[in-house]
Amino acid sequence: MFSKEKIVQLEVQDVRYPTSKTLDGSDSVHTDPDYSVAYVTLTTGTGVSGYGITFTLGAGTDVVVKAIELLKKKVVGKSIHDIFTNYRAFYRSLTQDSQMRWLGPEKGIVHLATAAVTNAVWDLAARLANKPLWRFVVDIPVEDLVAMIDWSYTSDVISENEIVEMLSEGQSGKEERIKELEKDGYPAYITSVGWLGYSDEKVKRLTNEKLGEGWTAFKMKVGISQEDDMRRAELIRSLIGPDNKLMMDANQIWDVNDAITRMKQLKKYNPYWIEEPTSPDDVDGHAQISQALREHNIGVATGEMCQNKVMFKQFLKLHAMQFCQIDSCRVGGVSEVLAIMVLARKFGVPVVPHAGGVGLCELVRHYSMVDYVLISGKMSDRMCEYAEHLHEHFTDEAEIKNARYVLPYKPGFSCEIKKEAVEKYKFPDGSYWQN
Q: With contact defined as beta carbons under 8 Å apart, do 226 and 262 qualify?
């Protein structure tokens, strides 16, 4: 099933886009982001390449690059067959290195590095199988897929036998769900109208444009002054009307009590959720906020900076998130994201992937397809984020039609950046940064 071509080279580059110039991606705490990636290329002896990324905001990407270089010896010399016939052991060789795990474990820079490497491994495997990543995953026999995933520290809430039973249920109607995705795609929401650095005039123009394109779910940033948040919420709600969804994202700016107070003030604008209302590590704080806002029908969404499956387990078990926001580059890649989606299914929490960043839309659409085809079998209360920036730099650009993600069909995980974009934006010697 898996190719025996050996990986002979791992190359990693620091690629940075100057989004701080236009304030695309700006929020209450990340006020001047330069959307960036640590970009991994794996090459086999016959010249086939696989690509992987992890997402950053500019400064510090070089540190992630160094961590990836330290993981190189774990990959080079192995074949996809070697890796995937015991993927769990391969994954643990990255995350449980007896010296490097001290820098984590399974969090921070070493986990971002793990994500870039494993994303490249899965991209290469899917390319060699001539399948898009989502199809590659759902075609793996259930018992084999479960055996690939590292379920450490989750046996208190779910057993591997239970997981096999759950995913085996997903085999029923699988092809019908795929045909539905081929026909109608997967529901999305738009973030690009409400970055915090945008003027009211720009917000109004962009919101009207997206309404004209058929969007029905919009996200805005909050977390500056109460007056500004109220004004911007009033503006967007007045434009989109009472029936379309409006989500809010505070990007961790508030303490727990502040979050509750501010959202009670904003409840008049009928927010569907508040995203990252407080520290991403504060499980109890999110639980308190969730409980306080439940009577106002405001959910809490979080997960884009949740560092591993153990943290997600706690958020889910303690009812601290009503929407589970996986991120394709924050945790340890495909296998850990699959584990988190299974945990979300166990606790009945919808998965709504985070995609506000370069390349993230390209990647997370595969996860939404896997969730629908194999794991949850549902689209109710589920949407995949779409941010309208930098897609043109990828060879398999995310496609939206009628405010829904089009099912990806090209082989791989959609991580490959066009060569001319790499040459222009690699840091510090790309042509853009040189000039």
A: yes
Distance CA 272, CA 254 (A): 18
For the CA atoms of 427, 126, 118, 24, what is the dihedral angle to 10 degrees?
40
Q: DSSP character for 67?
A: H
Is the omega angle on the peptide bond into residue 280 within 30 degrees of 0, that is, cis?
A: no
Residues 191-205 have pLDDT tens digits of: 999 888 899 999 999
303 C-beta neighbours (distance < 10 Å), count: 28
The pLDDT tens digits of the residues spanning 329-338 come to 999 999 999 9
| Per-residue pLDDT reduced to its tens digit, 273-313 | 999 999 999 999 999 999 999 999 999 999 999 999 999 99
Helices 283-294 + 309-317 axis angle, to 10: 30
Which residue type does 220 have?
M
Burial of residue 241 (CB within 10 Å: 0-12, 13-18, 19+) is exposed
- Separation of alpha carbons 285 and 348, rounded Å: 21
Cα gap 216→382, rounded to integer Å: 13
Residues involved in catalysis: 221, 354
pTM for the predicted model, two decimal places: 0.97
Q: What CA–CA distances, in Å, run from 105 to 70, 94, 109, 112, 334?
A: 15, 10, 10, 11, 18
Looking at residue 209, its pLDDT comes to 96
Cα–Cα distances (Å) from 183 to 176, 189, 266, 381, 410, in that order, read 11, 19, 38, 20, 17
Rounded to an integer, what distance in angstroms lies between the CA atom of residue 393 and that of residue 384?
20
pLDDT at site 353: 98
How far apart are alpha carbons 320 and 311 in whole angstroms? 11
330 within 8 A of 308, measured Cβ to Cβ: no
